[in-house]
Design a protein that fits this description.
Layout lengths: L11 E3 L5 H4 L5 E5 L1 H13 L4 E2 L2 H6 L1 H14 L17 E5 L4 H15 L5 E5 L14 H16 L7 H13 L3 H7 L1 H7 L4 H7 L9 E4 L2 E4 L1
Parallel strand pairs: 1-5, 2-4, 2-5
Antiparallel strand pairs: 3-7, 6-7
Amino acid sequence: MASPFDQSRYQVRLDWGLDALARLAPADIVVVVDVLRFSSTVIDAVERGEEMMLDDAAFAVSLNGARVAAAAAAAAGPDQTGPHAVEDEPSGPVVLLAGLRNASAVAQAIADEQERRGRRTSISIIPAGERGHGGAPLRFAVEDLLGAGAVIDALTTRGIDHSSPEAATAGEAFRGLRGAVRHLLTASGSGQELIEKDLRPDVVRAAEIDASDAVPIVRGPRIVGL
């Protein structure tokens, strides 16, 4: 029996953190959003033509974002190759990394994949949130809500708008607060934590909306550019 929380009635779904992978119905595409700093770090690497491994170094950048990406990749299986790579469908979900910097590029990649498949493609948007060491509970992260909302907003402009209430709310939050994104990121708890570590330029850069066309995709233990 379907769970009332699996959002299976909707094309675009949203839930938080690692548990979202089990709670949401299986989707064709999973988008992991960890704005400060995993997604933004990966976007920058892909822009430089580099790849990243889902290893200890990745977990050091962001414990929760890397964990969600690794779990989503494990669900995809070793044969998951991503959009446009092969004629056959992948054995599991296509796993993409998104943030504010590349929200429109990710939305366009999803729209292109839906067109390639020739059918409605289900999408799970997973804002990573914040989870500390030692089993600390997941903490809401405003930057990830805005990053997820930016992707959902960009999907809506491309006609992919059959969104769950959870996803629609994130999209509306981004639309309403778009002009204040830089302030919200630098003033947020996550932003202040990084600023105290002399990483203010990283926070400001992560707040740049649609500054990048890079679309990181998880392929096994590697993250590469689409």
